Amino acid sequence: MAKKVTMQQIANYLGVSKFVVSKALSGKGGVSEATKEKVIEAAAQLGYFAQRPSGKPPKQERMNAAVEGMKQSVLVLMPNIRFQTKESLYWGRILDGISAELNKRGIGMVILSEQNAEHLTGLINPDAIMGMIGVGEISSEMLLDIHRLGMTMVLVDHENDLLPLDSIFADNFEAVFRLTKQLLAMGKDNIMFAGDIQFSRSFYDRFLGYRAAIELTTGGSNRPDTVKLSNYGLNHSLLKLDGFETEHFIDSFRRWLKELPELPQAVICANDKIALGLLHVLKEKGIDVPQQVAVTGFDNIEDSYMSELPLTTVHVPKEMLGKNAVERLINRLQHPEEPIVKLLVKSDIIYRESTLLKVERST
């Protein structure tokens, strides 16, 4: 068994006192923000957060209740940022999956949309909560505060560089890899990707799937006679966007169309809301979809098939993400020493009128 990483080891590593490390890791202040960040980064590098918290461990009866399905409560933390709300066509369906699975097991659910880490711990009674499921983006500061309480955590559509936690994602890379290869097979050799790859890990993985398919086709050479990539090359085939909702992307797409030397034959969008924004601008400019430009999205929200031009997209089993998060939390409570798991849920490609493909689903 590996030796436990102590605060003294972190202090020795940084050349500071154990008192400074203790203050920084306690979250109670007493040190500068710069020092706190250095201590937390060093602690993560040394594996301090990978250990069971030094505070009171989760009560055994809480674990037993999880196993036996007795009435308990799970905290679902979904900070109200980036439109992460129960009303969201994406995040709301994940919450539905969590709620249904917890209800089936006779476990209660407490939803928190708190954004301020300073207020968070005052709202949580660890003795009344068997564990936490985090949905969407959650700050490291908030996760560290919950970690200090000794609470078991599972994340959905998010992961953290500091804390090794179980996480649940759609198969973002693989789905876009397959989608890009299909577009290339159709003869779409001038393809762009639209989305901010720093927005989330999911967006980044989707871009990597697109890039991998392009590189596989070009043999890594980016030869213009093989794949044009909008005459820019792979590094410039990414259209970066800001915002969260469809209307946020309208102006960016208008500027982009003015600057392009030629239209791409296809645009792979990081999610459906981006794709719907692009469809709006293309219609506004009189550009035919899919004859001139094929457009694809990701997530399969309701708006993707209720729009005037139904959108080719990747169907994410959103309720299944929530269900699997509950199962993962229960398993982690039962087997706390098991290796950390990153679970990928398979997605399906749904072909609609925004591309020329006529089949309904990928095989």
Automatic annotation (TrEMBL):
<keyword id="KW-0805">Transcription regulation</keyword>
<dbReference type="InterPro" id="IPR000843">
    <property type="entry name" value="HTH_LacI"/>
</dbReference>
<keyword id="KW-0678">Repressor</keyword>
<keyword id="KW-0238">DNA-binding</keyword>
<dbReference type="InterPro" id="IPR010982">
    <property type="entry name" value="Lambda_DNA-bd_dom_sf"/>
</dbReference>
<feature type="domain" description="HTH lacI-type">
    <location>
        <begin position="5"/>
        <end position="48"/>
    </location>
</feature>
<dbReference type="Pfam" id="PF13377">
    <property type="entry name" value="Peripla_BP_3"/>
</dbReference>
<dbReference type="GO" id="GO:0003677">
    <property type="term" value="F:DNA binding"/>
</dbReference>
<protein>
    <submittedName>
        <fullName>LacI family DNA-binding transcriptional regulator</fullName>
    </submittedName>
</protein>
<keyword id="KW-0804">Transcription</keyword>
<dbReference type="InterPro" id="IPR046335">
    <property type="entry name" value="LacI/GalR-like_sensor"/>
</dbReference>
<dbReference type="Pfam" id="PF00356">
    <property type="entry name" value="LacI"/>
</dbReference>
<dbReference type="InterPro" id="IPR028082">
    <property type="entry name" value="Peripla_BP_I"/>
</dbReference>
